[in-house]
What we know:
The complex is a heterotetramer, with two copies of chain A, one copy of chain C and one copy of chain D. Chain A is mainly alpha-helical. Chain A has helices at 2-38, 46-71, 79-95, 100-123, 129-147, 158-165, 173-191, 193-210, 215-241, 252-262, 274-293, 298-316, 318-323; strands at 153-154, 167-168, 171-172, 243-244. In chain A, α2 crosses α11, α3 (79-95) runs parallel beside α5 and α4 (100-123) runs antiparallel to α5. Mean pLDDT of chain A is 89; it is low at 1-13. Chain C is of the alpha/beta class. Helix content of chain C is 33%, strand content 25%. The longest helix of chain C is centred in the middle third of the chain and has 16 residues, at 174-189. Chain D has eleven helices and twelve strands. The two termini of chain D are 19 Å apart. Mean pLDDT of chain D is 88; it is low at 1-21. In chain D, α5 packs parallel to α6 (167-180) and α9 (249-257) runs antiparallel to α11. By secondary structure, chain D is an alpha/beta fold. Chain A binds chain B through residues 121, 124-128, 130-132, 134-139, 141-143, 145-146, 150, 254, 257-258, 261-262, 266-267, 298-303, 305-307, 309-310, 313-314, 317, 320-321, and chain B through 77, 121, 124-128, 130-132, 134-139, 141-143, 145-146, 150, 254, 257-258, 261-262, 266-267, 298-303, 305-307, 309-310, 313-314, 317, 320-321. The site of one magnesium ion (MG) has 6 residues of chain C, from α1.
Amino acid sequence: xxxxxxxxxxxxxxxxxxxxxxxxxxxxxxxxxxxxxxxxxxxxxxxxxxxxxxxxxxxxxxxxxxxxxxxxxxxxxxxxxxxxxxxxxxxxxxxxxxxxxxxxxxxxxxxxxxxxxxxxxxxxxxxxxxxxxxxxxxxxxxxxxxxxxxxxxxxxxxxxxxxxxxxxxxxxxxxxxxxxxxxxxxxxxxxxxxxxxxxxxxxxxxxxxxxxxxxxxxxxxxxxxxxxxxxxxxxxxxxxxxxxxxxxxxxxxxxxxxxxxxxxxxxxxxxxxxxxxxxxxxxxxxxxxxxxxxxxxxxxxxxxxxxxxxxxxxxxxxxxxxxx
Amino acid sequence: xxxxxxxxxxxxxxxxxxxxxxxxxxxxxxxxxxxxxxxxxxxxxxxxxxxxxxxxxxxxxxxxxxxxxxxxxxxxxxxxxxxxxxxxxxxxxxxxxxxxxxxxxxxxxxxxxxxxxxxxxxxxxxxxxxxxxxxxxxxxxxxxxxxxxxxxxxxxxxxxxxxxxxxxxxxxxxxxxxxxxxxxxxxxxxxxxxxxxxxxxxxxxxxxxxxxxxxxxxxxxxxxxxxxxxxxxxxxxxxxxxxxxxxxxxxxxxxxxxxxxxxxxxxxxxxxxxxxxxxxxxxxxxxxxxxxxxxxxxxxxxxxxxxxxxxxxxxxxxxxxxxx
Amino acid sequence: xxxxxxxxxxxxxxxxxxxxxxxxxxxxxxxxxxxxxxxxxxxxxxxxxxxxxxxxxxxxxxxxxxxxxxxxxxxxxxxxxxxxxxxxxxxxxxxxxxxxxxxxxxxxxxxxxxxxxxxxxxxxxxxxxxxxxxxxxxxxxxxxxxxxxxxxxxxxxxxxxxxxxxxxxxxxxxxxxxxxxxxxxxxxxxxxxxxxxxxxxxxxxxxxxxxxxxxxxxxxxxxxxxxxxxxxxxxxxxxxxxxxxxxxxxxxxxxxxxxxxxxxxxxxxxxxxxxxxxxxxxxxxxxxxxxxxxxxxxxxxxxxxxxxxxxxxxxxxxxxxxxxxxxxxxxxxxxxxxxxxxxxxxxxxxxxxxxxxxxxxxxxxxxxxxxxxxxxxxxxxxxxxxxxxxxxxxxxxxxxxxxxxxxxxxxxxxxxxxxxxxxxxxxxxxxxxxxxxxxxxxxxxxxxxxxxxxxxxxxxxxxxxxxxxxxxxxxxxxxxxxxxxxxxxxxxxxxxxxxx
Amino acid sequence: xxxxxxxxxxxxxxxxxxxxxxxxxxxxxxxxxxxxxxxxxxxxxxxxxxxxxxxxxxxxxxxxxxxxxxxxxxxxxxxxxxxxxxxxxxxxxxxxxxxxxxxxxxxxxxxxxxxxxxxxxxxxxxxxxxxxxxxxxxxxxxxxxxxxxxxxxxxxxxxxxxxxxxxxxxxxxxxxxxxxxxxxxxxxxxxxxxxxxxxxxxxxxxxxxxxxxxxxxxxxxxxxxxxxxxxxxxxxxxxxxxxxxxxxxxxxxxxxxxxxxxxxxxxxxxxxxxxxxxxxxxxxxxxxxxxxxxxxxxxxxxxxxxxxxxxxxxxx
Lengths: 324, 324, 500, 316
Ligand SMILES: Nc1ncnc2c1ncn2[C@@H]1O[C@H](COP(=O)(O)OP(=O)(O)OP(=O)(O)O)[C@@H](O)[C@H]1O
Ligand SMILES: Nc1ncnc2c1ncn2[C@@H]1O[C@H](COP(=O)(O)OP(=O)(O)OP(=O)(O)O)[C@@H](O)[C@H]1O
Ligand SMILES: [Mg+2]
Ligand SMILES: [Mg+2]
């Protein structure tokens, strides 16, 4: 009998937690639908659901990488400025006449390099992730400004816009990107060695090392992954706006972390489900969208979003509190 | 002989780390003095040293509270918006004719309340500190805006200015505040039960609990302390500018964390010396001041400060790397 | 004679400029169980960690199968068939057991993780050691003993040529130990070289073939275990004799100081009632998972109990607060020093002072007094540390345990609940600790001692409460005729005889 | 963005309209942010007009700093919520191409206020967007021209700029520099991120490096107020003239007291009013104006009183 209880407990814990999250997400959806209807507006329309996903897509993509880093017990504050950097660099390259495909590739490579620098300093240099990425946040932002003397870039060919603004089966293609990227990363995290090793570093790095996992290398990889997704996020944003702004992405570090934590990944690393990060990002997106549709003044929006973040996680932790 | 080395090691370990920090601080001082002199400007003047301290004082004070929270293994992202909130609330109260002393008291009480809410949600609600304070950052910022519909307040009586802009023995009084506040908090952290309990929670909360420490209560206290110092920081800023801006303090959360970590307190909590946080804050202040005196373009400033933060901590960790 | 499968020669290692290994030596033959013996802090674990490349050695050579080897990472060592169960657990609490067992050597199918096989294979090794838990249970849910068994399963699931066990039995009971020895014997017959570290003298003779004794980081000698006895080994190790006789307790009074009535906690503790008299040492024995630790934690107030009452010296506790218990003179020493007993990153002094801060001055604490008290305990318990300001994480396992004991001894309470107090402590130091426990009861304190070491239980306790599946099966008075077998049968089959 | 408003001549809320109130009209109004007085004034002007015309105004803005991404999201959500037209102050002149495309597709007219959308973007989207305002560049140029007239050549000057990379920050700095750069001697140029406290520290540091400074041009009044504190503290109030931008109420008080030399005023309330009024016309199919220059002016001691009076109407 005892074993029975434990069996359930061990396996289903994740699912139970996810359940709270899904219930929360659906609750928000229902609340907004009802309230909007009362206010004579539409929330739950096909078009608007698409909107929410498209609006959340950049954060959702960045949050994939952030999840990976947080799962190792780290943090990446440089994702926001990477988005800005990638935008300006990409803008300059496209303007110089390089084919868009090549530019995208180069930008992803840039993301890899940024991630590798962060990762190397953190894992081999033993500098806390918070410091390294706070530093690189500043450095990258500075370099972005220097790159085009602080000026934005616009006037891009249609091809760039097409990346993000195409429709496929009547749906914005961004939805497809988000789902594919999440599917890939969820597979990697649950079904491959790399993924399990990332989890093991967050859970107990020493144990992993003694068991033969090359923890330092894996840690670097996780920052590289974060760099890649930040770069992809930057490309998506660039394409969505068809405009490169050196300040783009500022504040995305906190937004992406919020998505990750609402999704239930512990800041201390080691446990959590990367798929739920998407739900976290969508919850944030829904809140923002719903409140704007209801024309709630912006400062009440901030307050409500703040409350919602806390409340969401509050319910998430109900079980832990009861366990005491 | 054997024992000798180790005894020193045990005792002096903290001091050794501090030493690196002090050397770093002095190195920056010397570099700026020399470079400024070459550029025909003055850095190491009595007046300018005063400037640096005054300029760093708000961050230095906030960083005291941040240190305490980080020592417990937490984080307080709401300090910046508390500064803004305290400014506007204080501004309104002063304008309503309340005596400045009473206002200051009320503002500190506000800080206590904010800290208590954060702390209670974190310790009794078991919600991660990052989420709670990210949420309260938004909520407080929103409330601040609502409070005076986003407008600044000005035209204060001279008495307010006097808090910060008086001179004492020819030195700005802010220097005195900073040193007194640090002295008090250093004593509390090293010489009192409360201080040791705070360290023990960061070191191993479970062990502390079994040793009879009321970990939850102490955790709440630590956020209250952070709230108090954020409020004091807000009062100092209000007095310094004699102007209440609802946006004041934005970004201070990251600056204060940077000061703490440069000062050598581990983000994971449990170890570090709160006095060094002051050095961390001064290093940041010196960098900013020196670069501005040299009239370095702001992009390069960001880059240099980013590099400096990473480098400072890099040297700090040299010993850890060698230990491998 | 067979060739040595492993030779370590001239190994030296220093930490922060202090030599902890000096020209150490170890030779292991295939198919032998080689015992490594030495006082706490002698350098046994360090030597092992050098073998597995967890630490870098300063000088010396390691010959494996006759060839000089130089492993650069733990991975290389594992790949070469060196498998280590470290003294301190190295498990990831956030993931299931099977993942911990197969970390770093995951099964894959088409490049993707094959969970099914891993679960099946883990189950096999867990059965072997007798761990009856589902492999998908999270490690964070396991007790210390169960974690130890996971470590064993993890080590034997490797393809081993050399298996190192650093105090594998410190946290488990005789039943599991027997299983472990079966496994060891099987590996032995496959020609695996086994290095075995333990402070439980009796089992060394049961399982070991040869024994290398170390002292202060240096090699002392290697003896054949069938040519020596316990006293001689003890002498080699600590330089004096240690007695295993029970001493009569003259301080026991009739006054009941602690009374537990009908305690329930989840389904782990069922209707437990207990009485502890003044001056009594009450042992609590039982198999792994019998709920001894849970019971102790319920009594001390760390767990919220559903039903039942606890009264101290006639005063009923409001309950569920550790602070209340401590204030009323009852303290608990955790079995899990790493997770619950110590703040590893803090100094010896900080750890000793933490529960006793009230006794170091009023508003401001006196560091001098703390230093003096800590210094006293360092010499009294022979804690091998270089100063009171040394970080606990840099002490050897046994010395860490002594720090845990010191911090509670100084609390000067009336009731001490010791959970596996001598876990990982060498014979010599055990004796000191027993002596201190006797001094405590002499001063009028009472002790509950939870221990899996029945030798120690029989030696120290006035009576033994045996637990089985969350209930107290029997309370056996420790009279001349009580044997380990009596306790064991009670733990296995319940106490159908007297009492209750 | 940012200034305070008022244009003395075109003071009257441009009437004509008098539009009918057949069906409820909702206009989306998107200032850059809502955390400074300039935009609050603009919104107040718009609100007053909306009330007068009996239409509904949905005001949305980015919370901290405006960005093209945040504005795109706002526009998308406004389209969903069914507004009839959108008045927008772009976070940058080139950043709205996607948002404009979406408005065009949804058939929602757009009026551009304050910061002009770049013609190339409008061409790209092929969308007609009226513009009412004076851009920052022009306003700053105005201040520069005034400096040439009133200060001796070669005066040591410091410039405080806004957040690097933001369009309005660049426009104000460039406007001033292009006009007066050859006349004054710019010895220091620092960004103080639009913030009072950073204006204060930057000025302190600039003063310790350059004790002979005679003029400070701050790209917004917040930084100018900070600069004034530092100047006062250094005891150089008599020697240094400070020019701010935005004409927020505290700056006007300081100009009145003679602490600050001047501040550039634009007319945000006017822009708000014109935006709403013309949007209603467009929605009702009536004529609307393609371009209105709402003008800018340097407020100094001479005209501050008048300007303050004008401002009061839009205070709340
Ligand atoms: N990481 C470390 N840093 C500093 N000193 C260390 C470290 N590890 C071990 N030591 C020191 O090395 C000495 C030997 O430790 P070791 O753990 O090898 O002892 P041991 O023989 O295993 O003892 P025990 O029986 O208590 O486990 C001890 O004095 C300990 O303080
Ligand atoms: N935190 C926990 N959550 C769930 N179950 C737990 C937890 N801690 C312990 N258990 C379970 O409670 C049961 C009894 O606990 P425990 O093994 O600590 O008792 P014990 O008699 O002290 O044994 P041991 O010899 O291991 O100390 C075990 O089966 C264990 O799996
Ligand atoms: Mg050991
Ligand atoms: Mg136990």
